[in-house]
Design goal:
This protein has 16 helices and ten strands. With 338 residues, the chain is α/β, with parallel strands linked by helices. The structure holds nicotinamide-adenine-dinucleotide. Nicotinamide-adenine-dinucleotide binds next to α3, α6 and α9. Belongs to the HIBADH-related family. 3-hydroxyisobutyrate dehydrogenase subfamily.
Length: 338
């Protein structure tokens, strides 16, 4: 069955209860939606899937790819997130950051729930997996609650590889009841579903994790560059660090030096394409610094790392869209030009 443009009014009623909508089909969202929809379809052949993206091409490509692989699956394309909310009981959003989440929920999803009324809203669930500002997320969740919609923040860890494999970790913030409601949906896209605490707690955990990751990726680049300057083969050095106290994900999985890892193929093997964009890491370091300031937490290494990513993006804008391990390429070129 070919994907079609959604007519939300035709979805109201029985079909809405069997419909799940995914908004934001970028690098992560497209893989997550694929796992969620394919696993749901395996269990419920009459389930209805709705996709929506600001770049309509992303939604169209996803829908035609999915229906090509799963003939008989019902996939519709919503023109706006509001249409998606009118048509599906479960909504998942995977957007770049705070401005997009505010816009999608405040200008589209909330008005749709005002239109639907508290009874239908009360049967609905919104899961936001975007990494964004904690306070902005809590404010959106509170307003959704006022409209009777259950909502959790459920940012992810595991990257595009984890999204593709369905092995993501979901860090969930919300009430116990909302967590329980979201868990079955999240389990179709991830392996570890952790209830971190009330609304915003999932994001707090995510931001703290990415603060560490952002710093580690830079220091990994520094250590591997230094080693090469001292005449070490980066593969040998990566093997040594990988089995020593300096080991971390940036060394053993997301190693930034082409050819340094024998059994994994990190983004550096593809000109740093795919993976987690430097622009997004810069955003996450900014989120950490903001919360650090609000809570009077000293973050000297976080501050320094944010400056390095800002420099990379400013001086080499093309690296902004590449995996953040491209910070190695930036430092390497600086070292060469010394
Ligand atoms: P992305 O930029 O590839 O995807 C975002 C998608 O949202 C795009 O398709 C975009 O067109 C769409 N979008 C933007 N504004 C929209 C709107 N108003 N309405 C509908 N769609 C809209 O980003 P990504 O890499 O998939 O990351 C998404 C989120 O996940 C970010 O918050 C990021 O920090 C987080 N994250 C990413 C990774 C990773 O490895 N890429 C890992 C963990 C967490």
């Amino acid at each position: 069955m070919a994907a079609r443009i959604l007519n939300p009014l035709s979805q109201l009623g029985a079909m809405r209860g069997k419909a799940v909508a995914f908004i934001g089909l970028g690098r992560m969202g497209s893989e997550m939606a694929y796992n969620l929809f394919s696993k749901t379809f395996a269990q419920e052949k009459d389930a209805h899937f709705i996709v929506c993206d600001a770049l309509k091409d992303n939604a169209t490509k996803f829908a035609s790819n999915f229906t090509g692989q799963f003939p008989g699956a019902h996939v519709s394309i919503a023109e706006t997130p509001g249409e998606a909310a009118l048509s599906a009981k479960t909504l998942i959003t995977m957007l770049p950051s705070t401005p997009q989440v505010r816009e999608v929920y405040e200008e589209h999803i909330m008005p749709a729930f005002v239109h639907l009324g508290p009874q239908i809203a009360g049967e609905s669930l919104a899961i936001d997996s975007t990494t964004l500002d904690v306070k902005a997320s809590q404010a959106v969740a509170l307003r959704m609650k006022d409209l009777c919609v259950a909502m959790v923040d459920a940012p992810v860890s595991g990257g595009v590889t984890g999204a593709k494999a369905g092995t993501l970790s979901f860090l969930v913030g919300g009430t116990e009841a909302d967590f329980r409601q979201a868990e079955p949906t999240l389990s179709m896209m991830g392996k570890r579903i952790v209830h971190c605490g009330p609304s915003g707690a999932g994001l707090g955990a995510k931001i703290a994790n990415n603060l560490m990751l952002g710093v580690q990726q830079i220091v990994t680049a520094e250590a591997l560059l230094l080693g090469q300057r001292l005449g070490l083969d980066p593969a040998v050095l990566s093997g040594v660090i990988g089995s020593s106290t300096g080991n971390c994900w940036s060394v053993s999985t997301n190693n930034p030096v082409p050819g340094a890892l024998a059994d994994v193929s990190p983004p550096c093997e593809r000109e740093y394409d795919g993976g987690f964009a430097t622009n997004l890491m810069l955003k996450d370091m900014g989120l950490a610094l903001e919360v650090g300031q609000e809570t009077s937490t000293p973050l000297p290494l976080g501050k320094a790392a944010a400056e390095v990513y800002a420099q990379v993006v400013k001086e080499r804008p093309e690296l902004g869209g590449k995996d953040f391990s491209a910070v190695y390429k930036y430092l390497y070129e600086q070292a060469v030009s010394v």
